[in-house]
Design brief:
With 574 residues, the protein is an all-beta fold. Helix content is 1%, strand content 50%. Strands 1, 2, 3 and 4 form a 4-stranded antiparallel beta sheet that branches. A 4-stranded antiparallel beta sheet has the order 13-42-39-38, with no helix packed on it. β11 (154-157) and β12 form a beta hairpin.
Length: 574
């Protein structure tokens, strides 16, 4: 039997376009002693019952007053079984083995096309080795020095994981959050200088529902410790959570009502369970996005149903610092069926991004809405549908301008993301296509810049990215924690570090499992989880701003810098 392999065939229906087991070799069995179409004749008879020979592998009939015993054909039309016949029990089937004897393949059988042999990976359970299967054997070689050890505060050196201690005593690294079984952290909020709240959920197989859970994480000198905040299991599962200006944790989501679900909002102080505020309406609605407002309240957004129960309207709501509902607006934009982002500038307005599709991929488009202090739309800007997909984040600038992070597309697929800057009147100032393709998990404004988390699809790279006030990439760091990682949130801590929450599908006994394990990453201000690769310039491939009349470089601590060349210098020499 094979062992140590890491990537089981998730489904054999794909079959890898390989030739299956020939059906004639094992999938149809002629039994009973006669050839195909032949039958033996025997004793005289008057009916079929008189011809039973006690052999379940023959078909016994009385024909022309003589018993005939024809072969029974045992065939289940499944190339993954061996078909036979037992004289007492009749037709039998046993699984067919597709093992090709090669340790470097994963063997299975598809019920439609037969045997399939996919490439196999292998693992020695050492995060600091690169494992491959070559010529029927698993071989390992040391990983490059400096690679981060998965879920540990160290880096790889000569094929082993060694401690990575920062000279100033700062703790960096990634740590397993294993104190709450099945916990999936979705949102982070700093509670104090050495405490972080992780808001997430666990899944109840008994009830088939997600349960809201909150873990309080203590940042210790070495590693982290966690305990569960009591009383949160009865709180509806939150779709969004952010820290308010008063230090409280703001949450929103949807909860079941008597005949439909309602959007809800809550404010937790001191990690006590929040009092849930319902946004009552005759139609179903849900909150998916939450943005703290300068006045201590929150801007909520999501979708609502129309009277005909079609998910085709956008919904926004706003509460003040005392959790009083200021307005609760449903905006019917026909095909625009969801608010994908919203932000509240200091002007008292609200800006929202709505997205919808009018049939096909090429007709999907987005628009930005400006709302006044009562939730009434006062201006609309539609984005170029040939260039942009949905707007995935909005960031308010002190000037009243807005940065919109939008997905880019060509005729058939997404090709990256761009930063769009619009002034307070909605005029486009610039569009910079400077972000990789992937899922924008979070965009978090901070005092020193904007933090982005981007997870590429299909197990691709996970990026921590810092934007400056000109919507340029100041630094970019790739996270690689092993397994199928997913980073879910990032916040800037008061001491300058970054805290990143995420999930991994780890390797257990050499096989990638389907369950998730939670982790917390503590990074420097530029997203590095290890001290040996710290600083704003580590891992940054280029600071080129595309302007031939600037000198581009990376400096510590600011990151990319662009200095205008003197007037006498020929453009391009910088």
């Amino acid at each position: 039997m094979k062992s140590r392999f890491t990537q089981p065939l998730s489904t054999l229906a794909i079959c890898l376009a390989l030739a299956g087991c020939p059906a004639s070799s094992h999938d149809s069995v002629q039994v009973g002693g006669q050839g195909v179409g032949q039958a033996s004749t025997g004793n005289p008879c008057q009916n079929n019952g008189q011809c039973n020979d006690g052999n379940a592998c023959t078909l016994d009939v009385c024909r022309a007053s003589r018993c005939e015993h024809a072969d029974r054909v045992c065939w289940d039309a499944n190339p993954c079984t061996l078909d036979g016949c037992d004289p007492k029990a009749g037709c039998t089937t046993t699984p067919y083995s597709c093992d090709d004897g090669d340790m470097c393949t994963l063997d299975g059988c598809d019920p439609y096309s037969g045997c399939a042999h996919g490439p196999a990976g292998c693992s020695d359970n050492n995060p600091c080795t690169i494992d491959t299967c070559i010529k029927n054997a698993c071989k390992s070689k040391p990983a490059p020095d400096g690679l981060l050890c998965p879920l540990g505060s160290g880096t790889c050196a000569r094929g082993t994981c060694v401690a990575d201690n920062c000279p100033d005593g700062t703790q960096l690294g990634a740590f397993a959050l294993d104190g709450l079984k099945g916990f999936e952290p979705i949102h982070l909020a700093q509670l104090g200088s050495n405490q972080i709240a992780a808001i997430g959920h666990t899944y109840s197989g008994t009830s088939g529902q997600w349960q809201q859970r909150v873990a309080v994480i203590d940042l210790q000198a070495k590693g982290v410790a966690m305990h569960e905040a009591p009383g949160w299991q009865s709180v509806p599962a939150a779709n969004a959570a952010r820290r308010g200006s008063d230090g409280s944790v703001l949450l929103c989501g949807e909860k079941p009502g008597k005949s439909q679900t309602f959007a809800w909002f809550g404010r937790s102080k001191g990690m006590a369970p929040p009092v849930v505020l319902d946004f009552d309406s005759p139609n179903r609605r849900s909150c998916f996005h939450l943005q703290p407002t300068p006045d201590g309240g929150a801007l909520l957004s999501g979708w609502a149903e129309t009277e005909s129960n079609v998910f085709s309207t956008t919904w926004l709501g706003r509460v003040d610092a005392n959790d009083k509902v200021l307005w609760n607006s449903v905006i019917n934009l026909n095909k625009y069926n969801m608010v994908t982002a919203a932000v509240a500038p200091a002007t008292g307005q609200a800006v929202a991004a709505a997205y919808g599709e009018a049939g096909s991929y090429g007709q999907a488009d987005s628009r930005l809405l400006w709302l006044d202090g009562q939730g009434t739309t006062v201006a609309t800007v539609q984005l170029d549908a040939t260039l942009y997909l949905d707007v995935r984040a909005l960031i308010a600038r002190p000037s009243g301008a807005i940065t919109a992070i939008a997905g880019l597309k060509n005729a058939t697929t997404a090709v990256g993301m761009a930063c769009l800057r619009l002034d307070a009147a909605g005029n486009l100032l610039w569009s910079k296509a400077n972000l990789p393709a992937g899922y924008l998990m979070v965009a978090e404004p901070t005092a020193t810049g904007d933090l982005l988390v981007i997870s590429a699809p299909q197990g691709g790279p996970k990026w921590l990215i810092g934007l400056n006030d000109q919507d340029e990439v100041a630094w970019q760091t790739e996270m690689n924690l092993g397994g199928q990682d997913l980073a879910t949130d990032v916040i800037a801590l008061a001491d300058g570090r970054l805290a990143v929450a995420g999930l991994s599908t780890p390797s257990k006994n050499g096989v990638y499992t389907t369950y998730a394990s939670a982790w917390l990453g503590l990074a420097d201000a530029w997203g590095h989880l290890g001290c040996k690769a710290a600083g704003p310039c580590a891992g940054l491939t280029s600071c080129d701003d595309g302007d031939p009349c600037t000198a581009d470089s990376c400096v510590n601590p600011g990151g990319c810098a662009h200095v205008a060349l003197p007037a006498a210098v020929t453009c391009g020499q910088g």
